[in-house]
Every structure is written in structure tokens, then in C-alpha cells.
Specification:
Layout lengths: L19 H19 L10 H22 L4 H33 L11 H9 L18 H15 L8 H20 L11 H20 L4 H4 L5 H15 L7 H20 L9 H17 L1 H14 L3 H46 L1
Helix pairs in contact: 1-2, 1-9, 1-11, 2-5, 2-7, 2-10, 3-5, 3-11, 3-13, 5-7, 6-7, 6-10, 7-10, 9-10, 11-13
Pfam family, one: Acyl_transf_3
Keywords: Membrane, Transmembrane, Transmembrane helix
Protein name: Peptidoglycan/LPS O-acetylase OafA/YrhL
């Protein structure tokens, strides 16, 4: 998942270092993606949350890393920091997906994601965060990981190229990406495109447009960055707008136009508004919580879908209670993954990076 601020575990919901409205929107967008994969009819446009994530990622990373870049942050150090942030939960999602695939192979499940002959090939490439050349999905064990690959591509472009470009070049990137993206989405009939081989071009255009637009939003004057962001019910409305937009029912022939309205207009507008206003105080802890668990939810939910579907079919649950139970279990699992796996591992990786920096400074001295 994208749009991941590098906040420390000690940052609270009230801290000015956090964008709590953006946290809440990111959390509900991750829930929308999981619901879309579990039951498409409950969240028919959940896939367009990916474009929101890219806008959010461009905004957050530009605000977080431009001062460090100007202070001398190297490409290698930046990518190591992003790897430490992204890889642990990516790896967990991959391992869960491999375990499910092996189980499906053992029982002869016809819906298994990878044939036995391609299992090792796909595992080796995906473990390196690279798309598998042996399968149609780029990431057969954890299909949503395609966006994490393009997040890494965008991160590399940020530190190698975008920080060095003149400002007028960024709107040009957005315009070129939009010109290439719009007709493909119209032809496809929806924005649900990018996870398969043959779709990597549109995936790159979606990433370039939204990520760069997020950077442009981060460059705009922001009074709240100096004087603080006011708390208002508008912040709550921004958070809830994510669900309303992604759950909107409509005839299938309208999907492409509607998805493009979210990609081109609503996602950047919500990031702009969410970066300048906070939710009312009693909503802030819940918004911060779902924001903190959002990446874990995005990274690990895929492997739980088929087992959960089988379980709810067995007990005969209706769609809405089944989805509610699925999301409750996934939020608990995501919270546990963050607390007992992701944060401890990230601390260890960060400590290793600091030790490496200290050794280099010692040698350089």
C-alpha cells in the first residue's frame, strides 16, 4: 500500500507531526480495498483507492523527505529507509500467500493461484519485490502487491529525478500521464486495471499521475503547517467521503467515467482538504488507529479471503454480516501484525541502518 507517513510509534493522534484526517482516509480506503476483494458488490469501486494511495504517498513523501534530501540524503540511504518501511509487511503478505498456495496445491484446489511448476519461479521474483514472469498476475500469491512494486518505482523516481526537476515539469508529467491513462481506462470500462502482465503501462501511468499530483499538492502554500490545522467536522466528512465514493452503486456503463472522476478530481481534492484540517477531537483516536493499521490490512488481507469465504458459506452467513466479520477479524490481525511483527522488525532494520551509517562515518573520519 502507498501513502505511508514515516511516523514513529510514539506519535499520538494529537501530534502536529501527524495528519489525522489523512490517516482516517487512508484507513477507510484500505478497508474499501479489502471489502472489494472479499465481496465486490459491497464496495464496487474499491480498486480506485490505489490512486488515492498514490496521491497520498506523493504528498507525504515530499513533505517528509525534501528537507532530508536538501540536507544530503543519498539515493541509497533513502531507498534503504523505504525498504525498511515497506518490505516487512510485504514479506508477511507474500509468506501467507505462499502458504495458502501450497495448501491449495496439496488438496488439488482448481482455483490455486500458481501451478506447481511455476511455484519456485514466482516465489523467487516476488520475494525480491519483482513481478513474476511466470504468471499472469504480477504477484500471484498476493495480487494487491502490484501497487507496492509501483510505489517502489515512484520512490526511486522521487529521489533520483523528481527532487531535481524544476517545478514546471511536474504538471507536464501529470498531463502526459493523464493523456495516456484516460483512453485506456475508457476502453477497459473501469479503472480496475494494472495488476496483470500487459497492464504494466497503465499501472505506470496511474502511478505517475497520482504520485506526481500528490507532490504538487505538497508544494502548495499551507498555513496549517505553521499555525496548526484546525479541528472541524469537515475533517470527518473528508474521511467518510472515501467510503461514499468507493461504495457508490451505478450502472456498469458508467464505471469508467466515474472512476476517472475519482482519479482525476476527488482523490487529489480530498488529499488537499485532508492535509489542511483535522477531524473533531473525539474522532481522532479512531482515525489514527485505522491509519496505523491500514498498510498491514492492505498487505495481508488477500490470503484470508478464500478461507473466510469458505467459512461463511459453511455457516450460511449473509453478505453484510459476513463482510462485517471479515473486516473485524482483519483489523484485529492487522493490529497484531503491526504491533508484534512490523514495528519490532522495522526497529531492528532502522538500528542496522544507523550502525551502517556510523561505521561509514568512522571510516570516513
Amino acid at each position: 500500500m502507498t501513502g505511508l507517513p514515516d511516523t514513529s510509534p510514539g506519535v499520538t493522534a494529537q501530534s502536529p507531526a501527524r495528519y489525522v484526517t489523512l490517516d482516517g482516509m487512508r484507513g477507510l480506503a484500505a478497508i474499501a480495498v479489502a471489502l472489494f476483494h472479499f465481496d465486490i458488490y459491497l464496495m464496487p469501486h474499491g480498486y480506485v483507492a490505489v490512486d488515492f494511495f498514490f496521491v497520498l504517498s506523493g504528498f507525504v513523501l515530499y513533505r517528509s523527505y525534501l528537507p532530508r534530501f536538501r540536507a544530503g540524503l543519498s539515493v541509497g540511504r533513502f531507498m534503504a529507509q523505504r525498504f525498511a518501511r515497506l518490505y516487512p509487511l510485504f514479506l508477511l503478505g507474500l509468506l501467507l500467500g505462499i502458504a495458502l498456495a501450497v495448501q491449495q496445491l496439496m488438496v488439488g484446489d482448481p482455483h490455486r493461484p500458481v501451478a506447481a511448476s511455476k511455484l519456485l519461479n514466482a516465489t523467487l521474483f516476488n520475494a525480491a519485490m519483482l513481478p513474476s514472469p511466470a504468471t499472469l498476475p504480477l504477484y500471484p500469491f498476493n495480487v494487491p502487491s502490484w501497487s507496492l512494486f509501483f510505489e517502489v518505482v515512484a520512490n526511486l523516481a522521487l529521489i533520483v529525478l523528481i527532487f531535481r526537476l524544476p517545478r514546471f515539469a511536474l504538471p507536464a508529467i501529470c498531463i502526459v500521464a493523464a493523456i495516456g491513462m484516460v483512453p485506456i481506462i475508457l476502453d477497459n470500462g473501469s479503472g480496475n486495471i494494472g495488476a496483470l502482465w500487459g497492464e504494466h503501462g497503465i499501472a505506470l501511468m496511474r502511478t505517475a499521475f497520482s504520485f506526481t499530483l500528490g507532490i504538487i499538492i505538497a508544494m502548495l502554500p499551507d498555513r496549517g503547517a505553521v499555525h496548526g490545522r484546525p479541528a472541524h467536522w469537515l475533517g470527518v466528512a473528508c474521511i467518510l467521503a472515501i467510503v461514499v465514493l468507493l461504495a457508490m452503486p451505478m450502472p456498469r456503463e458508467w464505471f469508467a467515467i466515474y472512476d476517472l472522476s475519482i482519479i482525476l478530481f476527488f482523490s487529489p481534492v480530498l488529499v488537499f482538504l485532508g492535509s489542511r484540517i483535522e477531524p473533531v477531537r473525539f474522532i481522532a483516536p479512531a482515525a489514527a488507529f485505522i491509519g496505523e493499521t491500514s498498510y498491514a490490512l492492505y498487505a495481508v488481507h488477500w490470503s484470508f479471503i478464500e478461507p473466510m469465504r469458505a467459512a461463511v458459506r459453511y455457516v450460511g452467513l449473509a453478505p453484510i454480516p459476513a463482510a462485517t466479520l471479515f473486516m473485524a477479524l482483519m483489523l484485529i490481525a492487522s493490529w497484531a501484525a503491526v504491533r508484534w511483527y512490523d514495528l519490532p522488525l522495522r526497529r531492528k532494520l532502522s538500528a542496522l541502518l544507523r550502525q551502517t551509517d556510523n561505521r561509514r562515518q568512522t571510516v570516513g573520519a
